[in-house]
Specification:
Elements: E1 3-14, E2 18-21, H1 22-25, H2 33-40, E3 44-47, H3 54-69, E4 78-82, H4 93-101, E5 107-111, H5 117-130, E6 136-143, H6 154-157, E7 163-174, E8 181-188, E9 196-198, E10 211-213, H7 215-235, E11 246-249, H8 254-264, H9 275-278, H10 285-295, E12 304-311, E13 315-322
Parallel strand pairs: 4-5, 4-6, 11-12
Antiparallel strand pairs: 1-7, 2-3, 6-7, 8-13, 9-10, 12-13
Helix pairs in contact: 3-4, 7-8
Length: 323
C-alpha cells in the first residue's frame, strides 16, 4: 500500500572561488600542513569573497539542485535554509534565497542547529511534505563560517570553511519505509553548550563573536552521540547497518569520521569523505559531500544512504533514505 512520501530528486552544491591551502594557513597562525593533516585530514578550505553572502552561496547551490531535479522556481513551495551564519539577524536568510531564485509562493525559513542543521532541516521538510502541506521543497545548508573564526586560534581556524549544498524533495506516492526519506532521529543537550559555542550574540554581547571549542570533549561526545543517533534511526527502520550502501557523515574531522565508522562497523569503502577538500562547512558539509558522491558516480539511484551530524548546542542526528 502506497502513501505520501518525500523523495530526493536532485542535489547541488557550491564552493567560493578562493581556496586556502594548509601552507597558506601556516602564514596566518602557528601551524603546518603536517600538523593540520595529521589531526584533521583537512588539506584545503574555501573562503567566501568580500561581499559574498550566505544567501548567495545558498542560492547557487539550490539552483544547481533545481537544474538537476528538472524543476523551476514555480515548482518550489518550501525553502528551509540551515545556517549558523545568516546574512542578517532578520529577515531569515531563506527569504533572501527565495527572492534570488524567483520563488514567489509557499514558505521560507531558517533552522539553526549548527553542524546538525541539515539533518534537522531535512527531517522538518520531510514531515511537512508527508503531511501534504507542501509539494516541492528546497533543503539547503549554507555557511560563511570563516567570518566567525578567531584567526589566532589554531584549534578552530584551521578546521572550518565556507560553502553550500542543497537537495530538492518532492512529495509523491510511494512505499513508506522503503522509498525516499525513510527515517530521522534528532536530539539536543543544552547542558553541553559551553564545549562548542560562539562567545557573542544579539542579546548577550551585541557582537557576532567567535567560535570557541573544547576539542577533546567535542570529539568524545561526537563519536558517542552520533553512533547512538545512527543506531536509533536504523533500529526504527526495516534495515540493518550492513544494508547501508553509503555513509555520508558530517565532514568535521577525519578522526571523527573514522571513529564513528569503526564503532558502527561500517566498511571504510562505504564512507564518503570530502573533508580534505573543503574542511568543516558546518550545515553545508553533508549536502556538499552527498552531491559530490552523486556527481562522481559513487552514489546511484535507489541506493540506501545514511547521514549524520553533531553540532554546537549540543545537537545531533541522523537520517536514512534512498536516493
Amino acid at each position: 500500500m502506497t502513501q505520501l512520501i518525500s523523495r530526493m530528486i536532485g542535489t547541488g552544491s557550491y564552493l567560493p572561488a578562493r581556496k586556502m591551502t594548509n601552507d597558506e594557513m601556516s602564514e596566518i597562525v602557528e601551524t603546518s600542513d603536517a600538523w593540520i593533516t595529521e589531526r584533521t585530514g583537512i588539506k584545503t578550505r574555501y573562503i567566501a569573497a568580500e561581499g559574498e553572502l550566505t544567501s548567495d552561496i545558498a542560492a547557487k547551490a539550490a539552483q544547481h539542485a533545481m537544474d538537476r531535479a528538472g524543476v523551476i522556481a514555480d515548482d518550489i513551495d518550501l525553502i528551509i535554509v540551515a545556517t549558523t551564519t545568516p546574512d542578517k539577524t532578520f529577515p531569515a536568510t531563506a527569504t533572501s534565497v527565495q527572492a534570488k531564485l524567483g520563488v514567489d509562493r509557499g514558505a521560507a525559513f531558517d533552522i539553526q542547529a549548527v553542524c546538525s542543521g541539515f539533518v534537522f532541516a531535512l527531517s522538518t521538510a520531510d514531515n511537512f511534505l508527508k503531511a501534504g502541506q507542501f509539494t516541492t521543497a528546497l533543503v539547503i545548508g549554507a555557511e560563511t563560517f570563516t567570518r566567525i573564526l578567531d584567526w589566532t586560534d589554531r584549534g578552530t581556524c584551521v578546521l572550518f570553511g565556507d560553502g553550500g549544498g542543497a537537495v530538492v524533495l518532492r512529495a509523491e506516492q510511494g512505499e513508506a519505509g522503503q522509498e525516499g526519506l525513510i527515517g530521522h532521529h534528532i536530539r539536543s543537550d543544552g547542558r553541553k553548550s559551553d564545549m562548542l559555542h560562539v562567545d557573542g550574540g544579539v542579546s548577550s554581547t551585541g557582537t557576532v563573536g567567535h567560535v570557541r571549542m573544547n576539542g577533546p570533549q567535542v570529539f568524545k561526545h561526537a563519536v558517542s552521540n552520533i553512533t547512538s543517533a545512527v543506531r536509533h534511526v536504523v533500529a526504527a527502520s526495516s534495515y540493518e547497518v550492513e544494508d547501508i550502501d553509503w555513509f555520508v557523515p558530517h565532514q568535521a574531522n577525519q578522526r571523527i569520521l573514522d571513529g564513528v565508522a569503526k564503532k558502527l562497523k561500517i566498511d571504510e569503502t562505504k564512507v564518503v569523505s570530502t573533508v580534505s577538500q573543503h574542511g568543516n562547512t558546518s550545515a553545508a558539509s553533508i549536502p556538499l559531500a552527498l552531491d559530490t558522491a552523486i556527481r562522481d558516480g559513487r552514489i546511484n539511484s535507489g541506493q540506501l544512504v545514511l547521514i549524520e551530524a553533531m553540532g554546537g548546542g549540543f545537537t545531533w542526528g541522523a537520517s536514512l533514505f534512498r536516493v
